[in-house]
Design a protein that fits this description.
By secondary structure, the chain is of the alpha+beta class. Helices cover 14% and strands 32% of the residues. Helix 1 runs antiparallel to helix 2.
Length: 1261
C-alpha cells in the first residue's frame, strides 16, 4: 500500500457486539457535547500516514480475535491501534467494544489475588465513548454503545434516549429500534414492568424494527407480549405464530431461519460493530500485478473407447442441431470434480464425443501420469445422450459428488454410489411442468436448512426446442417457467441422539453417523415467484443481494432485463424489478463477483453477440417492503463472450474475468479464443490473452496440476481438451476449500456440505478481497471447488472471515500464504445447560445441572403445570471438592433463557467409617411421595443376576458400574425432545433377595440421567395424543404377569445422579424380578439393591456449614464436551463465551456480595440470570479432623427455584413474580398475587433487585 499517497476513509462493517456493565450517572436525555475545540487546533480523525501499516496490522489482529471471542487479546491489539492513532475516534470505539466484551476480567483477577477493587473495563470503555461523543456528538456507534452500557446497568430511563437518537440518525437500523422499544419504562415507576399505558409505544417501536427486518425474531417475542398488554389477543397469537416459525431455537430437526439481536458478538447490531479503516488511493495506487503466466496449451492424453471420436460442429445435425446452437451462444458445459474418490479431479464434458449411438456426454477419469480415461459406460452413465449443462454437487451429503444433467426434454439426476458408478434417480423426480429445453442447473440452499436444493434454468418446451436460438427469421418459441426442487432428505438416525443432532456424513462434526441423506427431491410447489414467469430463461445468479442474510436469485432471459426473486424465508419468495439494469442484448448467463471492492455482490453477464455487461451493486438500505435491488453499469471493454469465469488470475486480491469468445465468422480474422479482463476496482480492463487458442467450444478453470492455482482448460473443435498450466506470477496466494457442518445448540451450525452461500473475506495489509461462494461462473457447467485469492507479496493473510449460510461467523488469523486450506465451519460461540461446579484442588469440575426440580410454570400437559420442588440435595464425592486457602468453593452458573432463584445453601460434610456407602433419598418425583433428601447408608449391596432392556438385550455388564455406559437402545420420538418409545430395564435378582425379611429396609439404587422435555414439547405431544409416562416399577408375579409396586418411582433430576427408592416389604420371596418402564428419555447407568443399615447411618458424622462468602457476577457460558464420546455432554469451566440476552422482563439481583441472601430460607432470593455466576465459599475449618481410615464426602443442600423462557412455560416472559415459601399453586389463579409485603422484604427488593433482566429482549416488558 502506498503510504504517502493514502488517506483513510472510516467505514463501518456489520460485525460487532457489545456487552456492558458499569453504571454512570443516568441522564434524562442524551447529554450535550462539550464545546468543540477551535477547528485550527482540532486533531485529524485519522491514522497518521507513517503509522498506517503498523496500525492496520494491529487492527486486523484485533478484528480477527473479536470474531474468535478472544476479547482480552483483541483489546490489547486495539490498545496498540490507539497508541499509534490516538485521534482516530473509530479506534476508541473499537477498543471500547473489546473492553465491554471482556467485562469483569480485571475484577476477577483482583479477586483471585486478594486485592481490592480493580479498575473496571467498563469504566474505561465509558471514558472512551464519552471522549468520542465530546468531539462527535452524533457518532451512532458511540451513542449506541453508551446506551447499551446504561441498559445493562439497569438505567433503562437513561439508555432509552441514546437508542432513540441513533434511530433518528439512522431510521433503517432495526437493532436501534429494538433496543429503544425494550428500554421503554413504566411511566409511574421505572422499577416496575411496563403496563398497558406503555404498550402502544412499544408496539410502534417494535413494528419499526420489523419494518426494516421482518425476520427479527428478537422483536417478535416482545411484540407479542406488548399486544397482549394492549388487549390485542389476535395480534398476539399471529405474532407468536410467526416467532415460532422463525425462532432458531424452535423445537424440531431444523432451526428456524430468523435473525436475532442478542448479547453475543456479531449479533448485536451494526452500531455495536468494529469499524475498519479502509485506505483509498488518491493519485497512484499499487503497481499493477504482473500478468499471470501459463504454459502453452497442450492436449490432454485421453483414452476413448475404440471407434469413438471427438465431436465437431458439423456432427450436430437433425434433432441435435439445437445443441450446437446452444454451444454457439453459451459454450459447452464442463464440470470438474472427483468422481471416483481418488483425490484427483475428473472431468465431465457435455456433448463431447461421437460414439456408436451418436453424440454423447463424457466422464473422463483422471489417472494421473497416465492421462484420462473415458469412463462413461463403466460408471453407468448414458452413452446415448448429449446434454447442454451439468451441475455437480453432493446433494445427498454422503461425501460423493452427484450430477444433474440438463438437455432437451431428458434431464437426469444421477447419484454417485461409492465412487464406482452413478445410479439414475430421474424417476424419483416429479417436475410440475412439461419437458423443457433446460440450459443449466445450480445446486443451492434456498430454505437455509443445511442441504442442497436444485434450481433448473429452462428456455422453452422440449417440443419447441428446434425453434430455439435461430437467426433465420423463424418465430421464437415460447418461454416456460423454471423448475425448483426442495431437498427434504433426512439424515440417518444416531443412537442416543435426538433428531436435531442427526447429521449426514458430509457435514458430520462431533458424532458418528452412517450415511447420507435419504433421497427426497420434491417439486417446490405453491411458489410461482420462485420459478419465475413464462420466459426464455438464460441464466441465474445467486447472492444476498438485499443484505438480509439469505440467498436471493437474479434471473436473465431473452424476454426482457434480468429480474430479482427475493428470498422471504419460510419457503416464500417475492419477484421484483431491478433498477439500473436494462440489458437489451441477448446474454449468456450471469455470474457474481465484487467488481468495485465494496464488499457487495455485483453482476456480470456475457453476450456472444454484444458487449460484456457488468453492473455494480448500489442497493441501498430501506424498509423491507420498499427495498429494490439497484445497479449501475460498470466500465469494461470486452465484446462477444459466450461464457465468463471470475478468478484472481494475477493474485493481487481482486477478482478478474476470463472469457470464452464467440465463434468467429467464416471470413473473420483469426483471434484468440480466450480473453482476460483485469479487475482494477474502478473498471475491468482487457489484457493480453493468458493463453493462445484457436476457436474453441468450452472454457473452464480447473486445477489439474495439483498446485492448486487454476489452470485453463479449453474444449477445442473436434479434438481432446487442451490444458494450459498456471505457472503463477510471483505473487503469494491462498486456496480455501469451504465445508459446512451440522451441529445442535449450543454450537448451532446448519450449513450444506459445500458451504454454497457462504461469504468470504480475506484481509492483509493492502488486501481486502470479498468472494460470494455461489455463482462465480456464467457457464452451463458448475461444480464446487476451492477459491484462490491473491495476497500480492504478503507472507500471510492477517485474517480470513467467513460468514456461513447459517449465520455463524468465523475468523482465522495469520494464515500462511501459498497453502491450500480446508476451512470447515466452526462455531466458537457456545452456551450451556444449568450447571454446578466444584473446586477439586486444581480446577472447577462439572457436577451437573442444578435445581431442575424447582421449575416454575413447567407445563406437563395443556392446562396442567407441575409445582416446584423447592429443596434439593446434591451429593459430591471426596475427589470433587477439596479445600483451598481455608475454603470449599463452588460455582453455580445459569444457562441461556433461564433464571434461577437461590434462597438458602448449606454444605454438609459427611464423614463415614470404613465399609460404609452413602447416597441421598433424592430424585425428581413430580407426583407421589416427595424425596426427603436424607442420607441413606449401607454396608451390603446386591447386584442383579441378569439385567436386560425391554427388548431382551443383555445389559448386565452395562448396569454393573456407574461409568457413563447406559442402556440406550431405544428409539427417540422425532421432534419431541425428552420423549421416546416405551423402554426400560428388567432386573432379575434370582434368589439373591430371598434371605431378607419383609421388615428389612431395602433400597433400589439407580444411577443415570434424563433428557428433560420442554414445556412446548409436552404441549405438542399432548395435542397429538401422546402422554408422558414417568418411570413405574413392576414386579413379576408367579403366573408371568406384572404387578405395579411403585407407580411414582421418579427419575434422576437431569444430568447423572444416583437415586434411591425405599421398596421395603415389596422385594421379599424366593425370586425377585423387577421391571422399570417409561417413555421418557431416561438413561440408566447402574442398578442394584442396597440393604439400609441403621447402625451405619448412626455412625455417620455430619457437619453443616453455612455460606461464608458469595459473590454474584457476570461470567458467560461454558463449553459442552463429551470426555468419552458418549452422552450426556458435560461442561468445561475453563472455556467462557458471552451470554445472550434473556427474553424475560423484570429485575435480577445486582452484582456483588450476596452472601446474606443465601444463609436462610427467608424468601430473600438471589436471582441469577443467563450467563451469571454465583461464586460461593464455605469455611473448610468447620468440620473436625477426619479419623484414620474414614472417608469424607459432601452434600450441597439448597432451597430455590428456576424458570425457563419456553413460550409454553407459565410466566416465561417475566422474572416475576418472585416465588416464596408457602405460595399457592403456580401459575396463580389470581394474576396479581404477590408475596405479602413487609418492611424487611421491601428493603431487600430495594437493595438487591435492581438489575434488569437481559437487555433488548426484555428490559421493561
Amino acid at each position: 500500500m502506498g503510504v504517502a499517497t493514502q488517506r483513510l476513509l472510516i467505514l463501518s462493517t456489520a460485525l460487532g457486539l457489545v456487552a456492558g456493565c458499569a453504571r454512570p450517572p443516568s441522564p434524562e436525555a442524551v447529554p450535550e457535547a462539550a464545546s468543540p475545540r477551535d477547528a485550527a487546533e482540532a486533531p485529524k480523525d485519522e491514522i497518521p500516514a507513517d503509522r498506517l501499516d503498523a496500525a492496520m496490522a494491529a487492527h486486523l489482529r484485533g478484528l480477527g480475535l473479536m470474531e474468535q471471542y478472544e476479547y482480552r487479546k483483541a483489546a490489547e491489539a486495539f490498545r496498540e491501534v490507539r497508541r499509534l492513532a490516538p485521534d482516530w475516534s473509530a479506534g476508541a470505539v473499537n477498543l471500547a467494544i473489546a473492553l465491554l466484551n471482556d467485562g469483569g476480567v480485571q475484577a476477577e483477577q483482583a479477586k483471585k489475588s486478594g486485592g481490592g477493587k480493580a479498575p473496571s473495563n467498563f469504566d474505561e470503555a465509558l471514558e472512551l465513548l464519552r471522549g468520542v461523543l465530546d468531539r462527535k456528538p452524533d457518532d451512532p456507534r458511540a451513542l449506541f454503545c453508551q446506551g447499551v452500557i446504561l441498559a445493562q446497568q439497569g438505567d433503562a430511563v437513561g439508555a432509552h434516549p441514546f437508542f432513540r437518537k441513533v434511530a433518528e440518525i439512522d431510521p433503517l437500523d432495526a437493532a436501534s429500534w429494538l433496543w429503544a422499544a425494550n428500554t421503554v419504562t413504566n411511566a409511574q415507576d421505572p422499577n416496575l414492568p411496563v403496563g398497558p399505558g406503555e404498550a402502544p409505544l412499544k408496539i410502534e417501536l417494535l413494528n419499526k424494527a420489523l419494518a426494516v427486518d421482518p425476520y427479527l425474531v428478537s422483536a417478535l417475542y416482545p411484540l407479542a407480549f406488548a399486544y397482549r398488554l394492549n388487549g390485542q389477543q389476535d395480534k398476539q397469537r399471529e405474532t407468536l405464530k410467526r416467532w415460532q416459525q422463525l425462532d432458531p431455537d424452535r423445537p424440531g430437526a431444523v432451526p428456524g431461519p430468523g435473525n436475532v439481536v442478542v448479547n453475543s458478538y456479531g449479533e448485536m447490531g451494526r452500531y455495536g460493530a468494529i469499524a475498519s479503516p479502509v485506505a483509498a488511493a488518491e493519485a497512484t495506487g499499487p503497481a499493477p500485478a504482473p500478468a499471470p503466466r501459463f504454459e502453452a496449451l497442450a492436449p490432454l492424453h485421453v483414452k476413448l473407447a475404440e471407434g469413438d471420436r471427438w465431436a465437431a460442429p458439423a456432427d450436430f445435425t437433425g434433432d441435435k442441431a439445437v445443441l450446437d446452437r446452444v454451444r454457439a451462444r453459451f459454450g459447452a458445459g464442463i464440470a470438474s470434480f472427483d468422481a471416483d474418490g481418488d483425490g484427483r479431479l475428473d472431468l465431465y464434458l457435455t456433448a463431447a464425443v461421437i460414439g456408436p449411438q451418436g453424440i454423447r456426454d463424457a466422464l473422463l477419469l483422471n489417472k494421473g501420469e497416465a492421462g484420462f480415461e473415458d469412463a462413461t459406460a463403466a460408471f453407468g452413465l448414458p452413452v446415448d445422450r448429449a446434454g447442454t449443462g451439468v451441475a455437480a454437487a453432493d446433494f445427498d451429503a454422503d461425501r460423493r459428488v452427484d450430477l444433474y444433467l440438463t438437455g432437451v426434454g431428458g434431464d437426469r439426476l444421477l447419484r454417485n454410489v461409492d465412487g464406482a458408478r452413478f445410479e439414475d434417480l430421474t424417476e424419483t423426480l416429479k417436475p410440475d411442468g412439461p419437458p423443457a429445453l433446460s440450459l443449466t442447473a445450480r445446486w443451492l440452499d434456498l430454505d437455509q436448512d443445511g442441504d442442497l436444493d436444485l434450481y433448473v434454468v429452462n428456455y422453452t418446451t422440449a417440443e419447441r426446442a428446434d425453434d430455439a436460438f435461430r437467426d433465420d427469421g423463424r418465430e421464437a418459441p415460447p418461454g416456460v417457467p423454471n423448475t425448483a426442487f426442495r431437498n427434504d432428505g433426512r439424515p440417518p438416525a444416531i443412537a442416543g441422539k435426538p433428531e436435531p443432532a442427526w447429521t449426514p456424513l458430509a457435514t458430520v462434526d462431533n458424532v458418528t453417523t452412517t450415511g447420507g441423506l435419504s433421497l427426497a427431491l420434491v417439486p417446490w410447489t405453491g411458489e410461482d415467484a420462485l420459478r419465475d414467469e413464462t420466459r426464455r430463461h438464460t441464466g441465474i445468479a445467486l447472492a444476498d443481494f438485499d443484505g438480509d442474510r439469505d440467498l436471493d436469485l437474479i434471473l436473465s432471459s431473452d424476454d426482457g432485463p434480468p429480474v430479482a426473486v427475493l428470498n422471504e424465508r419460510l419457503g416464500r419468495f417475492r419477484p421484483i424489478p431491478i433498477k439500473g439494469v436494462d440489458a437489451k442484448t441477448e446474454t449468456a448467463g450471469l455470474l457474481v463477483m465484487d467488481l468495485d471492492d465494496d464488499g457487495r455482490p455485483d453482476l456480470v453477464a456475457p453476450s456472444a453477440s454484444g458487449p460484456l455487461l457488468a453492473w455494480r451493486n448500489l442497493t441501498g438500505r430501506a424498509v423491507a417492503e420498499d427495498l429494490s435491488p439497484t445497479f449501475e453499469s460498470f466500465a469494461n471493454n470486452a465484446q462477444g463472450w459466450r461464457s465468463a469465469l471470475a478468478a484472481d488470475l494475477d493474485l493481487d486480491g481482486r477478482f478478474d474475468l476470463v472469457g470464452l469468445r464467440s465463434r468467429p465468422a467464416a471470413d473473420a480474422r483469426p483471434e484468440p479464443a480466450i480473453d482476460w479482463l483485469r479487475g482494477e476496482g474502478t473498471r475491468l480492463a482487457i489484457q493480453d490473452p493468458p493463453a493462445l487458442a484457436d476457436p474453441a467450444e468450452g472454457l473452464a478453470l480447473v486445477d489439474l496440476a495439483g498446485d492448486p492455482l487454476p489452470d485453463l482448460l479449453v474444449v477445442p473443435t473436434g479434438g481432446p481438451p487442451l490444458l494450459a498450466r498456471n505457472l503463477g506470477n510471483g505473487n503469494r496466494w491462498l486456496a480455501l476449500d469451504l465445508a459446512g457442518r451440522w451441529r445442535v445448540q449450543p454450537e448451532l451450525m446448519r450449513t450444506n456440505p459445500h458451504a454454497i452461500g457462504a461469504r468470504l473475506t480475506v484481509q492483509a495489509r493492502g488486501i481486502d478481497a470479498s468472494y460470494d461462494h455461489t455463482t462465480p461462473a456464467a457457464s452451463l457447467g458448475s461444480a464446487p471447488g476451492p477459491v484462490v485469492i491473491g495476497l500480492r507479496d504478503r507472507p500471510a493473510a492477517d485474517v480470513i472471515h467467513v460468514l456461513w449460510p447459517d449465520g455463524v461467523m468465523q475468523a482465522e488469523l495469520n494464515v500462511a500464504a501459498d497453502e491450500r486450506l480446508a476451512l470447515a465451519e466452526r462455531n466458537r460461540k457456545t452456551g450451556s445447560c444449568p450447571v454446578l461446579f466444584t473446586w477439586n484442588g486444581e480446577r472447577f469440575v462439572c457436577l451437573g445441572d442444578f435445581l431442575g426440580g424447582g421449575g416454575m410454570g413447567y407445563l406437563v400437559a395443556p392446562g396442567v403445570y407441575s409445582q416446584p420442588d423447592r429443596d434439593e440435595a446434591v451429593a459430591i464425592a471426596d475427589d470433587q471438592l477439596r479445600p483451598e486457602q481455608g475454603a470449599y468453593r463452588i460455582s453455580i452458573t445459569e444457562p441461556m433463557d433461564e433464571v434461577a432463584y437461590l434462597d438458602h445453601l448449606t454444605l454438609d460434610v459427611v464423614d463415614r467409617p470404613p465399609g460404609v456407602s452413602v447416597a441421598l433419598d433424592e430424585r425428581f418425583a413430580p407426583t407421589g411421595p416427595r424425596p426427603t433428601g436424607e442420607l441413606r447408608a449401607w454396608r451390603t449391596a446386591v447386584d442383579p443376576v441378569r439385567a436386560t432392556d425391554l427388548k431382551g438385550n443383555d445389559e448386565t455388564e452395562t448396569l454393573k458400574h456407574w461409568d457413563r455406559k447406559t442402556v440406550d437402545g431405544f428409539a427417540r420420538l422425532s421432534g419431541w425432545v425428552g420423549y421416546a418409545e416405551e423402554h426400560g430395564i428388567v432386573l432379575d435378582f434370582g434368589d439373591r433377595l430371598s434371605g431378607f425379611a419383609t421388615d428389612d429396609r431395602l433400597l433400589l439404587v439407580l444411577a443415570g440421567w434424563v433428557e428433560y422435555p420442554y414445556s412446548q414439547t409436552n404441549y405438542a405431544a399432548a395435542t397429538a395424543g401422546v402422554a408422558l409416562s414417568p418411570p413405574a416399577i413392576e414386579r413379576l408375579r408367579d403366573d408371568g404377569s406384572w404387578e405395579t409396586i411403585e407407580p411414582h418411582a421418579g427419575y434422576p433430576a437431569g444430568l447423572p445422579r444416583m437415586t434411591t427408592l425405599d421398596l421395603s416389604g415389596k422385594l421379599d420371596g424366593p425370586r425377585c424380578v423387577l421391571r422399570i418402564r417409561t417413555n421418557m428419555e431416561c438413561y440408566y447407568d447402574q442398578a442394584f439393591v442396597a440393604v439400609r443399615d441403621a447402625e451405619a447411618e448412626r455412625s455417620l458424622r455430619t457437619t453443616s456449614i453455612p455460606v461464608a462468602r458469595a459473590v454474584l457476577g457476570a461470567r458467560g457460558y461454558t463449553r459442552e464436551v463429551s470426555p468419552d464420546g458418549r452422552l450426556p455432554l458435560v461442561y468445561d469451566y475453563d472455556y467462557v463465551d458471552p451470554a445472550p440476552l434473556a427474553r424475560m422482563s423484570g429485575r435480577l439481583t445486582r452484582y456483588g456480595d450476596v452472601a446474606a441472601l443465601l444463609r436462610a430460607d427467608d424468601d430473600r432470593l438471589c436471582v441469577v440470570g443467563p450467563g451469571d455466576e454465583a461464586r460461593i465459599e464455605f469455611a473448610a475449618d468447620a468440620p473436625p479432623p477426619l479419623p484414620e481410615g474414614w472417608s469424607r464426602s459432601f452434600v450441597l443442600r439448597s432451597v430455590g427455584y428456576c424458570k425457563d423462557a419456553d413460550p409454553f412455560t407459565a410466566g416465561s416472559d417475566s422474572v416475576g413474580p418472585l416465588p416464596w415459601r408457602g405460595m399457592p399453586e403456580f401459575p396463580f389463579a389470581d394474576p396479581d398475587a404477590r408475596r405479602p409485603r413487609d418492611d424487611d422484604h421491601a428493603e431487600y427488593l430495594r437493595a438487591y433487585q435492581t438489575r434488569p433482566a437481559g437487555g433488548p429482549a426484555g428490559l421493561s416488558r
